[in-house]
Write a structure and sequence with these properties.
Mean pLDDT: 93
Shape: elongated
Order of helices and strands: HHHHHHHHHHHH
């Protein structure tokens, strides 16, 4: 991690100032499992506390760790009772069915390229490129991901790189070019920078 942080500090003075304010990088990682994709689907478009509460109710019903069988044994009514919308229920069910049918293989994801992982995961309803990017960064620990669809990264770039509006993907790519091969770590710092009042 020190090598990545040193590279980012050297290559981008704006990021250097952010790193000095935020302090050491403390990225937290999950395991590349079915459970973590199910969790990321449930967390979509929910704020922290609500997401934690709903996920806890969901795992109380489905079991821990979450498995395809654990999801498929639940009725639509049970999924609604734990707080999942009709749409989200269909997403976790689709994930469970595709995994059980062998269309998703979590044991092979670490061998795949970033693009292959995105293609593999986005065959599930409700798993878009953003979710796949988060999986690559925080589960497969890929260090060079730039989630151009992430609002937090866009907002931090707008703020720190003096943009009048949220940057488009091509502007984000241009700003992030010097961060390579550590764009994931740079994004972590951008997210953290939004939590720090002094910036």
């Amino acid at each position: 991690m020190r090598k990545a942080v040193n590279h980012l500090k050297k290559s981008d003075p704006v990021l250097r100032a952010i790193i000095e304010r935020v302090g050491p990088c403390r990225m937290e990682f999950g395991e590349p499992t079915f459970h973590s994709v199910a969790e990321s689907i449930i967390y979509q478009q929910l704020n922290g506390k609500a997401a934690v509460t709903i996920f806890k109710r969901f795992t109380d019903a489905a079991g821990l760790p979450v498995t395809p069988d654990g999801i498929l044994k639940l009725s639509d009514a049970q999924l609604r009772t734990v707080g999942l919308s009709k749409k989200k229920s269909s997403y976790v069910r689709d994930l469970a069915e595709k995994t059980k049918a062998g269309l998703l293989d979590f044991s092979r994801l670490h061998e795949q390229t970033d693009d292959e992982v995105i293609q593999h995961l986005t065959q599930v309803k409700g798993v878009g490129v953003w979710t796949a990017h988060m999986f690559l960064m925080f589960t497969l620990r890929r260090q060079n991901i730039l989630p151009t669809g992430d609002y937090g990264v866009q907002a931090a770039m707008m703020k720190h790189y003096r943009k009048r509006k949220l940057p488009k993907p091509k502007d984000m790519e241009r700003i992030a070019k010097v961060w390579s091969p550590y764009r994931s770590i740079a994004c972590w710092y951008l997210w953290r920078s939004l939590d720090i009042k002094t910036l």
